[in-house]
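Report of the visiting student (M.T.), summer placement. My assignment was to run the structure pipeline on a short list of targets and document each run. The first record concerns prephenate dehydratase.
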Amino acid sequence: MSPTATDPSNTIAFQGELGAYSHMAATAKFPDMAALPCPSFDDALEAVKKGKAQLAMIPIENSTAGRVADIHMLLPGSGLYIIDEHFEPIRHCLLALKESTDADLKAVISHVQALGQCRNAIRDRGLTSMPFYDTAGAAKEISERGDKSVAAVASQLAAEVYGLRVVKADLQDQGHNTTRFVVLSRSPLANPDFSVPMMTSFTFEVRNIPAALYKALGGFATNNVNMTKLESYYESDSFTASEFYADIEGHEGMANVSRAMEELRFHTKRVRLLGTYPQARLRTVG
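After the run finished, the structure tokens were exported:
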């Protein structure tokens, strides 16, 4: 387990309780940094903005459940920069009080995404799913509640933190279940090593005209730039202006990426660069 947060310059913030998957990701990526649990994604971002933490570890998408809600809207307005990424394998466990038996269990609580990722396994056990704000928070809740009929879906780390029994390991329906995290900082990556494969993330708003998205993205095709992710969302209550989040391989120091980004800026209302950072090893060996 990571050390207690006492030095902000050596602290990484995450959303959730101790034992959350974000905590596991933070510890795996930065084992020597102290971990700072935060109630919400907003709080984790604020901890970095206000200097309570040097970095934040934020989940952005899951291979089974898709994108993490609200993150695409929070990142552009945070004023923070993506400086790294991390892929964390998610191995859900069914946790219960040590004194409870399998026959005692009637219900299971966890974050709605975790419940969705274990839907078939939970149904096969005849348990009733009840959403909770956080996976590790669910583990903490059953440890404090003392109800032998309620289990939690959370991590092995959460079982250790809250003294629970692992009823079933690898509960997830898909064995490849993985969450992609981004690491955020107050400043963009200093002196990036462009000798290694890089990623660039950004958001943009298209003009409300026919073929706006086609024109905006044309430069990436003609300049042979690989776009690995493109998602749309609405930033306000208006349905007339679509915002898009995108990840591309490369950086603007590359001639083809520079040309593609120039064309994007010409055909859009605005582009917000979120960060340029090294590709995670999973991408380079996949």
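The chain has a mean pLDDT of 91. Residues 143 and 162 are 6 Å apart (CA to CA). I thank the supervising group for their guidance throughout the placement.
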